[in-house]
Protein 1
Amino acid sequence: MTRDLWPYVLLILVGFLPNEIWRWIGVVLSRGIDENSELITWVRAVATAILAGVVAKIIVFSPGALASVPLPVRIGAAVVGLLAFFVLRQSVFAGVFTGVLAIIIGALMMG
Amino acid sequence: MGPSGATAVAARAPTLDPSVTNIAPTPLAGFIAGLKAALPSVFLLVLVGTYISIGALAHDLGFSVLWVVLSTVLVWAAPAQVIILTSLGAGAAPLEIAIAVSLSAMRLLPMVVSILPMLRTPATKLRGVILLAHFTAVSMWVEVLRLAPALPREARIGFANGIGTVFMGGAATACVLGFYLAAALPSLLVGALLFLTPMSFLVSVTRGARVLSDRLAFVLGLGIGPLIAYQQIGLDLLWTGLLGGSAAYALARLRRALR
C-alpha cells in the first residue's frame, strides 16, 4: 500500500466505517427500538454535545482564513445569526444568511 | 419517532403539490418524484451552503479535492466530516477520531429506524434499503418524514432515494465549488465560507432539538468544548460529549422527576 493511498484508507477506517455501521444497525433493528428509551436519549445528548463542541471549537479556535477575523466578531456574528433565526420565525436560511453577513460586515468594520 | 411526533410533522406540512403525490406506485416513479421534490427544498440550499464551507475547510487544511468529495459520498454526514477534517488536520490519533465520529453518528440509528417502517413494503429489496440507509441524514430524514406519507407505499423508498440523490449530488458539487473558491477568493470571503459550517449547525440544531436533554446538551457542549480544548486535554471532543451530554441527560431527568 503506497503512502498516497493512506489518506483514503484513513477515510474508510475512521470516517466511513464508524459512521455507516450505525445506519446498518438501524436497518437490522428497524423494528422494536423505542426512540424515547433512556439509552437512546443519553446517546443523543452525548452526540449533540459533541456536535456543539465541534461548533464551538470552530468559532473559538478557528482554522485557516477564519482565524484572521477577531474573536468577538466571530462570536457576535453567531449570536446575531441566532437572533435572526428566532426573530424570522425559525427560518434556518435567515439565520445562516444573517450570521454570514454579520461576520463579513463585522470583519470589515473591526478587522 | 413515536406516532405523535410523525403526525405533528405531517400536520405542519404545507398542502402538497398533486404532481408530486399522484404518481404510479412503482419505485422508479417514486425516484423521479423524489428528484423533483428535492430541488426546491430549503434543505438543499442549506446543504449547498454547508458543503461549500466544508470544501473550503478541506482546502485550507491541506486535503485534496478528491478526498473531500469522497468523504461527502462515503460518509454523508456533515458533522462527522467536519470532525474528521479538523481532527486529522490537527494531527489527532485515528482511534480518537473514529470514536468521536462513531459517537456523532449514533444519531443515524434512530433516524434510520424511524423512517424505515414507513417506507418499506414486503416486496422491498435489500439493496434499496441499504441505499436508503446510506442516504439517511438529517436533511433527507426531515423531508422524507414530511413528504413520503402522501405517496403510494410502493413508491416511497424510490422517493427517499431520489431525495437522497439530489441532496448528495448537490453537496458533492458544492464541495468542489467551495474547495476552489477557497483557493481563489480573498481571505475575508473564505473566512465567511468557513463560518457557514458552525452557523448552519448552530441554527439547525437549535431548531431541531426538541427535547430538554438535547437543548441542554447543545448549550453545555458550546460552553464546555472550548474550555476542555483550551486545556489541551487529549480526546477533548469525547470528554465534551460525555460530560456535557451526561450532565444534560441528568438535568433533564431531574427536572422530570421534580415535576
Note: Residues 11 and 57 of chain A are 22 Å apart (CA to CA).
Protein 2
Amino acid sequence: MLEHMRELYQETILDHNKHARNRRTIDNASRTAQGFNPLCGDKLTLYLMIVDDKIIDVAFQGQGCAISTASASLMTESIKNKTLAETQQLFEQFHHAMIEQDVSLEKLGKLAVLAGVKEFPARVKCATLAWHTLDAALHQQSTPVSTE
Amino acid sequence: MSSNFPVEKIRQDFPILQQKINGKPLIYLDNAATTQKPQAVIDALKDYYTHNNANIHRGVHTLSERATAAYENTREIVRQFINADAKQEIIFVRGTTEAINLVANSFGQLMIKPKDEIIISAMEHHSNIVPWQLLAERNQAQLKIIPMNNHGELLLDEYQKLFSPRTKIVAITHVSNALGTINPIEKMIATAHQHGVPVLIDGAQAAPHLAIDVKKLDCDFYTLSSHKLYGPTGIGVLYGKKYWLEKMPPYQGGGDMIKMVSFEKTIYNDLPFKFEAGTPNIADTIAFSAAINYVKNIGLESIAAYEHGLLNYALNALQAVKNLRFIGTAKERASAITFILENIHPHDVGTILNSEGIAVRTGHHCAMPVMEFFQVPATVRASFSFYNTIAEIDQLVTALYKVNEVFN
C-alpha cells in the first residue's frame, strides 16, 4: 500500500481506533459536550470530571471514522490530570498544528502520530472533532459536583 | 454483458479520464455526484465564448441572434429528449434543486392552504425534502412520508393509504441517489391522478440512465440536472404541464419574465419566460445541448444495457469482499451501489480507495433520513457510467480487499 497511507493509518492510530481508550460514560460528569460533523455523520459525546481545577477523568462515546476515534482516544490520554488552563493550551497547540502547514506536532508527544492527517485536508475535521468538543466543554459552566 | 459497447473509444472522448491519481489511473466511480464531460461539451463552451457570446432575447445584432438561436435550440433539444409537447413546458433553472424550489414556492403559493398535505417518500434527497418542509412551515401544511422496506423499495400499499381530501401534491424521486432504487413512478402517478393529485418527479439520477418520456409518465412536473447528464453545472430543467405552469405565479422577478413594467402595474411574460428571470446561464445551456446530443448518439438503450451489465458484474464481484453489506437491494435498480464495510467507517474506506486512484462518495449522500432508516452514520457509494469498465470494477474489489487488510 502507498507510503502515505501507511503514514495516515499507522499502527498507533489503528490501535487507538480498534481499542479506543476511555470509551465509556462518566456518571455525574462535571461537563458534557456534544460534537457532530454533519458532512460525514461522525458524532461524539465528551465527559469531563473536574475536581480542583484538574481533569481527573475524561471519557467519550460516539461513532466515527478511524481518524476521529483515534484522535479522541489519544486526546483523553493526553489531558488526564491536566489543569483546565493546561488543557486549553494543549487544544490551541493541537488545533494550530493541524490547520497550519508549517507548524509541527512534534512537541505534542503521542499526538504527533496524527501528523499524517495534514496531508489529507478533507480528513483534518475528523482529527479535530473531539478537540472542538473539548473546547466547548472547557467553556461551559460545571454542574455542581459533590466531592464528599 | 454487452461486449459490443465501444467503451474504450468512448473513454477517449473524456480528457479528464486520462490522468493518474496518486500514481494510479483515475477510476472515477462518483458519477451520481457529477459526471465527467466529453470533449464536445468542453468545445461547445469554448466555442460559445470564442464566437457567439452575447446576451439573449434582447439584441438585434448578429451575435445576439446567434446566442439566442443556440439557447432556444437547446430548449427544443431538451423537449425532444423528454418527449414534452411544447417548448413552453421546458423551464431552464440552475438544477434539480432550483426546479423543486420553484414548484414548492410557486405551486405552493397557488395551491397549498393550511392543513393541506404534501406526500414525499422516505428515500428522498434533501432537495426533495427541504423545499417542501419550508412550504409546509410557511403555509401551515403537513408532510406525509411514503415508507420503504429493508430493500429500499417504497411500500405501495402504504402509499395509497396516505391520500386524503387534503392531499395537494406528491413529490418523489425516479431513481434514488442513495440506494439506486428505481421507483414505479408511472403507477404511482396514476394512483395520485385517481385522487386528483398532481405529481412532481425528481429525475436527477434517472435522466442519465433511462429514457424519459414525460407524456407516457403523465407526470405534472419533472426535474433534471445537466451536470448529472455529462453537461456543465449550473443548468437544469423543470418540465411542467402547461396547465399548471400557466396558473402558477412567477418564482423570481426581474428582466425577461415580463412583458411590460410600470410602477402601477407589471404584466408577466408568456411561458416559458415567465419563469426565467434575469440573464440565464447561456453558455452552459448551449453546452448542455452538446451533452444531450452526445448521449443520443451513443443511444440511451445501449447505455442502459451496458450500465446494467456493469451493475450486475459489480454486485456479483463485491460479494467476495468480506464484511461488505449492501444498503439498498431493490429489485429494480440503476447504476449506484451503496455499501458499508462492517466496523470500518466509510471515510476510511474512501481515503484508502483514493490512494488507489478510485473516486467514490462517502457520507450521507444528502439523504440523512435514508441513513437513519438503515441505522448507519454514513455509507460508501460507487456509481457507474458508460465510460466505466469491468477492469475498473475489478480494481475496486481489489482495493476493498486492501481496506480490509489495513483494518483487520
Note: The radius of gyration of chain A is 15 Å.
